[in-house]
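Its record is quoted verbatim for completeness.
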Amino acid sequence: MRRSCPTPAAVLAGLRLAVLGALLGAAARPADAHVTPNVELLKKGVFVKQSLPGATRFSEQRLAFGKADLAAIRSRTHWTPSEEDVKVYLGRDEHGRLVGAAVFVWTPSEHGPIGGAVAFDPAGKVLQAAVTDVGSEPLAWVRPLLQGDAMTAFAGLPLDVAPDPSKLAPAVTGAMSRYYAEVIAQAVARAQAVARVALASAPR
């Protein structure tokens, strides 16, 4: 039996479909080429309880950012928060007094977003900071920054003092690790800006 050959028109149509499929696939993931799956380093509930040990009751605070709040946050951080980027939890003691707030923020990086967590006392002083989530690729650069008590570099900062990335694990000198020290410091700065609004609106 003779095998039929595809006509030139059929070959051209097939090529067009292949090119279209490749273009659609690329369009579906234009900015994700460097993003890797996230690794959870610390559960949010664990951080809240560890960082606010005097609290016995916890609640999520729904924030409604006014125009002045958003302008202040943009001025300090060049960032506009959204509900997807930020979560705030308040901790209170058995008498209902405010013990502090835990702020969780997502901050972009070259290899995908990192999750940062910062706890504040009622006056806005940083009690504790942590990285909760990071991509599997940058984990090798971020992990040295988190060894031991390195994140205590941010403890004690008041709301009006910006975090200094050079104080986070200064002995770690790799270029990518230093880049991620800046990303982590940016996450702390974002949390400070949100905490300023959250604490101002939280009943005492």
Summary: The chain has one domain: 35-201.
